[in-house]
Amino acid sequence: MLSLLPQGCTRIKTLYQGAEAVVDLCEWLGRLVVVKTRVAKGYRVRELDELIRRSRTVREASLLNSAKRAGVNTPFVYHVNPVRGWIIMSYVGDQSLRSMQGSSLFASLIRMLGETVGRLHSAGMVHGDLTPSNVLVSEGRLILIDFGLGEFSREVEKEAEDVYTLFSSLMTLPDSQTLMRIFLGGYRSSAGVFAARVEERLREIGSRGRYVEKKLRRSSPGGNGRL
Amino acid sequence: MGERLTCIGVESTAHTFGIGVVRHPPFETLCDVRRVYRPASGGIHPSEAAKHHLDNAADALKEALSKIRVEDIDLVSFSRGPGLGPCLRVGAALARMIALKLGKPLVGVNHAAAHVEMGRALSRAVNPVVLYVSGGNTQVIHPSEGRYVVLGETEDIAVGNLIDAFARSAGLGFPGGPRVMELALKSRRLVRLPYSVKGMNVSFSGMLTMLESLVRKEPVEDLCFSLQETAFSMLIEVSERAMAMLGLNEFIIAGGVGANSRLREMAREMCSERNAVFLDYPVEYYADNGVMIAWEGIVQYRLGESLRVEESTVKPRWRLSDVKSPPAGLYSN
């Protein structure tokens, strides 16, 4: 399904079609731009649908800008239309960090990502969906995209979740343990004193669920021990 | 697929005491007896519900056996968990008794898996995303190769719990679902409530707190309408996200809250917008019942599961992720 585009935009191709938004590569005022459209959902009553799309569009645009101020590279926001759910932003290429897996540069990029995420967190923001597909590589710099699930937050839990999400997607790689260490090295260098709290929470998240199960099993073998 | 099997299943996880008998292949329901506990006031009291089940067990079994031939039974299954311990033990005791008496294998099944497999069997879905919503559970599940992957779930209370707890504070009685659905039809006015979606997880406790604070300040119809629209939008949104992520185009709902027609209407709408299909089935099978336990008994027995009576303790906290899931071909009759 093709989404409605802002006036003056010519669609070149659709880059991504998710559950919530469509991302199109377009030409606008003579330049290449990316248009992210939060599409209306027919299953929600209109009032609620508009409320949700409006607040998420505004929040995402605002995060993109604030992250930039904190020294994290993000696309430039050119135009926001909260009613239509549009964000027009600069096109920063389509080479993702994921596509760099296996390259000799990958480890150094992961270190750089650690520094970047540390800066983002220090400035009171979390990304919400930190995967190698949401990190673009352009001219040796990393650019974070898709802040759709991000928020302004200083909660250690949310910061640790960011890192946990990234680590889960690194897990399939052969040298995942080394990469995680490298990431944390970069993270510590920019997150400063907060890094230790996040790392501690990270270990706790990893053991959740399993710990409770183990404890139950130990105290009562075979279910709860009663017939 | 294996030989033809007839299984008698006993359900007793919460408020429903049910006995069902299923034969397969082809899938055939031979009997469906249900006795539902209705608390005089408040919500489910575990030991009172267990007493209700105990008082009704003999009578329900008698009714079930009047509809089938005892000699036809090949298997006995029961809901082993997750659920309320005192309630689970009543069903387990009855199932053990039947199995010992008839000398047939005993299978302990997971209540959540039974809901999912019942939904798959009746809807004929091949590879669906499943939204499992009831009084105690809210999960987005993908039955994958050999296991159930829980993609998202509630971070606090279940959606059915939200509805029941709100209904109680508004004086609508238990269970709240039917009354809330009926009253919601009388309103079109949306009261703003917290909409809390985090990735593929949801959270309802903030919404409940706010609803309780509004109970005598806003018309109850408006609150019912707003609760349904907000909570169900959250559920459909995370389900759609799961479908998009996995690239799947079949969607089913399982569990008691699936009996709500507004939720199913939203599911249909979401699917039609993304060229997917919402596969519905008769509404009486969304709620807890013995038939799904009997069917899951057959499914698990074919996967090699059975229990000795001595090891058939109930598991009130049994996670779905620890259960084996069957291959999709099992349903082609």
Description of the structure:
The complex is a heterodimer of chains A (227) and B (333). By secondary structure, chain A is α+β, with helices and mostly antiparallel strands. Chain A has six helices and nine strands; from the N terminus they run βββαββαββββαααα. Chain A is globular, with a radius of gyration of 20 Å. The model of chain A is unreliable at 209-227 (pLDDT under 50). Chain B is an alpha/beta fold. Chain B folds into two domains: 5-115 and 286-331, ATPase, nucleotide binding domain (Nucleotidyltransferase, domain 5); 127-278, ATPase, nucleotide binding domain (Nucleotidyltransferase, domain 5, 2-Layer Sandwich). In chain B, the strands form three sheets. Chain B has a five-stranded mixed sheet, with helices on both faces. In chain B, strands 8-7-6-11-12 form a five-stranded mixed sheet, sandwiched between helices. The longest helix of chain B is centred in the C-terminal third of the chain and has 27 residues, at 220-246. The radius of gyration of chain B is 20 Å and the shape is globular. Chain B starts with a strand and ends in a 31-residue tail after the last helix. The A-B interface holds A 1, 17-20, 41-45, 47-48, 51-52, 128-129, 149, 209, 213, 216, 222-227 and B 80-81, 85, 89, 92-93, 190, 192, 195, 198-199, 229-230, 233, 236-237, 240-241, 243-245, 265-267, 269-270, 273-274, 311-319.
